[in-house]
């Protein structure tokens, strides 16, 4: 059986918990996507942009020195080398092409640190779409450079001042915009969450990560890896690399959530390991909520993982036991961040550093279990240029007179 | 009075039902009870208590702000039940408007049971569509709570018929494509939507919400709908008042104006 089912459910997760006003648009989107999937012209266009514009297939790289340091054979899927610096370009190109196909001239997007906003603005510029990005007001101040990037690319950035003024409120505001403008507007959702059909569409658009990596690693080593590791916020890069490996029962799948200060402190963004089942942003999934079902604020050093929910397919993979989800603290992630910089000369996104830290944790376990050096495929989902300020401040390596103004990253 | 009786009584009087909305616990539990009682005394036939929620995607800035204030002041789901109980005890007809997650967290059947015990007659679910509503429909039936789902100008005929068939008590017609909040004019899409609902079910009472804030607008909507639902304009009376006494004076005045409106009263 393939998931989701006809109504968008992954087991009891997913579905559509949205105002009726959006149902017609979601139905239209689903229909357009099913048609596009069967349409060789659409697929050619998408594949062409991925190859010639985004620069995929991304490299698969055997990280020798990191492998030595971790006691495992580590292969990095270099999504950080894609145009715009992360896996997200795959999703935005796919959805922007869908918007064109549906004849919608305007796209809206939510963004936290600004990565999905920049990616959306990029795709909108390329495909001549109007683009409006909702961003929490605190984030627009902290991420002034990404705001400038979006504006350079022609997008309008709207700071969201209600609620907690963060990613979840930006998502609420995008949904409110969409309720009013659905006839002319496509909501370019940034992760594999939200109401059906978004979790499926986003998964499929980023699914090339896993398809490529599977082929590349088998080509290079002659066999499948023992484990695949990815960071999980909303979960798009993780579902993107997991999906092709789900049928390979011998391949363990590990999702690493943002453990912040530690799940036991309550200051984290680990929805599966530290949350409970509920409904948020249109789907049933694991989320951080209080005993009344009010959404709680998440905490993570990584803006891209700082979200109180998670995509419904991850909730399902967790319940079925097909994938294992564990928290990685800020400190563990930053140690892995530094390790990759120093051993491989690669500055990863702090998000991706969670996957590296997770790989470091599972390496000795797998080695003991298998009685040999394990092979671990890690999704290096994004590059760290955007995180230079955060990381520089964390490690205390910014000279006083070189401390960048708050919000500046590079 | 049940929802059905409330609509029947208004019909017999050749007028529409006035539904007034107020978030539970805004700005405090006791103050919100006083606001709701003032609304009921001044002409609101039905008090729609909104359960404050952290992520209200169907609500505009006024209800968001009021909900945030209520949550910041510590309102809990069980306080909403207490408020409903206090307001129903005065004889007012009370329905609850709530986003879905707080109900799922409380326990769907337990909530329907406690809601009925508190005296509410119905529940409006802005982000629960009947497609996902099987558990709620069963619990509401078991405990005698009317269930109101929303229909929208964008609903297809097929979905509209399915949604109306899933309602009991009344159906909530969202007058326009948008979120809650008073508008300067009544949506032109509303009369057609009500007409489409009547074609699907001539007997189901139709309440129209979104964008109504004055007596004149209430009169305009009352001319084609069974119920007129007003939220943001009433809430603003309290939100923008210098003190609660002034807020309640304004709330009474606006409730009376709206009540005159649903009776086809001369627009002021």
Describe the structure.
The complex is a heterodimer of chains A (410) and B (268). In chain A, 44% of the residues lie in helices and 18% in strands. Chain A is α/β, with parallel strands linked by helices. Chain A has a six-stranded mixed sheet with strand order 3-4-14-9-10-13, sandwiched between helices. In chain A, β11 and β12 (283-287) form a beta hairpin. Mean pLDDT of chain A is 95; it is low at 405-410. With 268 residues, chain B is α/β, with parallel strands linked by helices. Chain B has one domain (3-262): Aldolase class I (TIM Barrel), CATH 3.20.20. Chain B contains twelve helices and nine strands. The interface between A and B is large, with 34 and 41 residues.
Rg of chain A, nearest Å: 20 Å
Q: Name the CATH architecture of chain B.
A: Alpha-Beta Barrel
Strand content of chain B: 5-15%
Helix content of chain B: 40-55%
Which homologous superfamily in CATH is the superfamily of chain B? Aldolase class I
Give the CA-based shape of chain A. Answer: globular
How many E strands of chain A? Answer: 14
* Order of helix and strand elements from N to C terminus of chain A: EEHHEHEHEHEHHEHEHHEHEHEEHEHHEH
Terminal-residue CA separation of chain B: 30 Å
Quaternary structure type? heterodimer
Question: Strands, helices and their partners?
Answer:
The complex is a heterodimer of chains A (410) and B (268).
Chain A: E1 9-10, E2 13-14, H1 23-38, H2 40-54, E3 60-62, H3 64-70, E4 73-78, H4 88-101, E5 106-111, H5 115-126, E6 130-136, H6 137-142, H7 144-152, E7 156-160, H8 167-181, E8 185-187, H9 198-206, H10 208-221, E9 227-232, H11 236-242, E10 252-260, H12 271-274, E11 276-280, E12 283-287, H13 312-320, E13 323-329, H14 330-344, H15 350-370, E14 375-380, H16 388-395
Parallel strand pairs in A: 4-14, 5-6, 5-8, 6-7, 9-10, 9-14, 10-13
Antiparallel strand pairs in A: 1-2, 3-4, 11-12
Helix pairs in contact in A: 2-4, 3-14, 4-5, 4-9, 5-7, 9-11, 10-11, 14-15
Chain B: H1 3-12, E1 17-23, H2 29-41, E2 46-50, H3 61-72, H4 77-89, E3 93-97, H5 100-106, H6 108-118, E4 122-124, H7 134-143, E5 146-148, E6 150-151, H8 157-166, E7 171-174, H9 189-200, E8 206-209, H10 215-222, E9 227-230, H11 232-239, H12 244-262
Parallel strand pairs in B: 1-2, 1-9, 2-3, 3-4, 4-5, 6-7, 7-8, 8-9
